[in-house]
Design brief:
This protein has about 625 residues and is α/β, with parallel strands linked by helices. It has 25 helices and 17 strands. The strands form 4 sheets. Strands 2-1-3-4-5 form a 5-stranded parallel beta sheet, with helices on both faces. Helix 3 runs parallel beside helix 4 and helix 16 packs across helix 17. The radius of gyration is 34 Å and the shape is elongated. About 40% of the residues are buried. GO terms for molecular function: ADP binding. It comes from Helianthus annuus (Common sunflower). One of its GO terms (biological process) is signal transduction. This is Putative toll/interleukin-1 receptor (TIR) domain-containing protein.
Amino acid sequence: MASTSASSIQKSFKYDVFLSFRGEDTRKNFVDHLYHALTQKGIYTYRDDEEIKKGEKISGELIRSIEDSKFYIIVFSKNYASSSWCLDELVKIMECQKTNEHTAFPVFYDVEPTEVRKQSGAVEKAFEKHKEEESAEKWRKALREAADLAGWELKNIFDGHEAKLITKMVEEISLELRFTDSSVDGKLVGMETRVKDVVSSLDINIEDHVRMIGIWGMGGAGKTTLARAVFDQISFRFEGSSFVGNVREMSGHPCGLKSLQKQVLSDVLNDPNIIVNGASDMKRMMRGRKVLVVLDDVDHIDQLEALAGEPNWFKPGSRVIITTREEQVLVAHGVPKNLILHVNLLSREEANCLFNRYAFGRLIPNQGYEELACQVIRYAAGLPLTIKVLGSFLRGKDELEWRDALDRLKTIPLKETLKILEVSYDGLEEDYKEIFLDVACILKGWWKERAIRALESCGFHARSGLKVLEQKSLITVSSNGLLDMHDHIEEMGKNIVRRLHPNEPHRHSRLWIKEEIEDILVNNKGTKAIKCINLRLVNLYVAKKGLQKMRGLRFLKMDHLFHDIGQDRICLPNGLRYLSLYNYPFKCFPKKFQPNNLVGLDILHSNADQHWEVGEKVEL
């Protein structure tokens, strides 16, 4: 199957706009103002600065400039048709216009469309001297075709106010360019629909109020990319705009919030030397302009209070976009629930496309790499950050290097992904960190209510703790009430537990790998460091003494037990606070087990008939 390289999907142009005009009519007024308005908005515009056209034919350089421009603005004035140079330009423009790559917009400055179309009135008078020339007919055809295009007629728009027309033209050209740019950037995969959703929530056509919206999601999910794409697409619609990146990081520096306040005001007022003395200056200086402000990676309410305190700081019509991993920050700042947009991970199709762009520079994998690419995409599990990092890393490597990298990922997590994800963990209170690690290592896939019961048995405020984790995008709760988290967040949690002593599992706080647990139990390596164990398919003979040294063990879950020893040969730690046994073979617990600290007990499909009230001191 033939493939298309990323660079050839759509042609790129040297110029955004080519201006065609009659210098003596409009160079020093309308065209001059239009040119400066376009360039101020970052629209790269070609304007021929020759005061007098030299020669009868347009130059090859000018033809190349026309071919290398995406849009054409043709300013029809009374004397436009008197210039053979202008008419040759027009013929070339109309030739390019017929392709799908170029678009022409006529401006009827001081003539009417019908005069251009029929070469009547002022246009007829201007064209008079060309009637007998060899090119007359192709020039007439070009004038007719141009007059039929959608464009702008000055006298019928804004009552002939040139400044207002220029503002509208720049706005519409900007919008066209942003649509084009979003389709050209093949690495913004999956963004089109997401951008539309954000723009729809902003509702920028309603200008009687200020609106703040939140973009919320886990680290590496593409919040910043999405916010930047929206900013680039709509910022031209505002009188001032500012994109403030890395708010979390920057606000931690000395005078960090003050420097961010200065950045916002410098951007929206276009004044790099502005002096800011706090929130009162922000409010006073911004409320006179309709602005777009993006605050990226916010993690504390103080940052919002300093940078976008209240809607009355801004002129009606202004919009503020806040990206964060912390849903509660948005709620606390008064962002309505319906304006908090959760960033979904990439679909399988989107993930395929994005990875192929980064790894192969095209739409499909190179021959022989299809299955390897699928393995990487499965590992990434829809997280754009991982897809980009791995795609860039693997690009240009041979098949053996790919296989080696994939084997390494089975035991060594991707450092760049973990670094981004761990920011959310680092911001947790200590007890919430413990809850997170319990979920990552053991409780993922549990019913939420059962997990709450187990965590509360261990002394945690589990209900509020799980809510915090959910608001920080560290966990999710499925529609049927099961705890879940992204594979890389689970990987990050397990890495936190193992990394200090990677080759000494008996020093880990949580154990979930069967072979490691059995080795610790059989060889009596238990330590006080071990807090939680989740073990399946274990012979109780293995556990007969190995649990005894685990004096810090608070959580023990053992499933599908079988045995070849008597019950009194098993030693359960007396410090246990939660105990879950599935298929326990005996009718009672070991005599030496004193469950004075035991709060939670789950015994399923077991022979035990010894019961006590939860929390009650029990003699066995």
